[in-house]
Structures are given as C-alpha cells and as structure tokens.
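INFO  loader      accepted 1 record
INFO  loader      residues=82
INFO  predictor   begin
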Amino acid sequence: MKYRRELTLDTEKQYWYVDMGPKPGMPDWHVLSDPSRYPFPTERAAVRFSRNHKQIDPTRRVRVLFPDGYILDFEQGDLDVL
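INFO  predictor   done
INFO  writer      dumping tokens
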C-alpha cells in the first residue's frame, strides 16, 4: 500500500480551508509545531472539524477560511457558531 502524499483539488469547485496554528508547547522538530491547512468540500464539514479540534485543544489557533475571503476565527467562547 502506498501512502498518498498529495491531494488533488478540483479547480471547478469551492473549498473551505481550516487553518490551524502551531500547537503550543511542542518541540521544534515535531510535526505539530508548524501551522497546517486542510481543505473541506462544505462549510459544515469545515466548521465541525474546527469546532472539534478547538474543543480538543483550546490553546491552538483554529479558523475557517471561506471561499469569499471571510475568516471565522474560533476563540475559546465561539464554539456555538453555525
């Protein structure tokens, strides 16, 4: 089995991206010490993923980047959005 390292995105579709900041307290060599961004095909999926990860680690920056440029920034109290 070969591990897929790239994700091919359709240029005809819109994607909502979840932008996650580095996880505080991780050593520099750890993969979670760098920011990451994940594409989602629907707004609902992106918001659910963001909400769950913010509940898991409230200190990590988590936000949803909408196709129209709007940014939904999840602060510790903003988990009831959508």
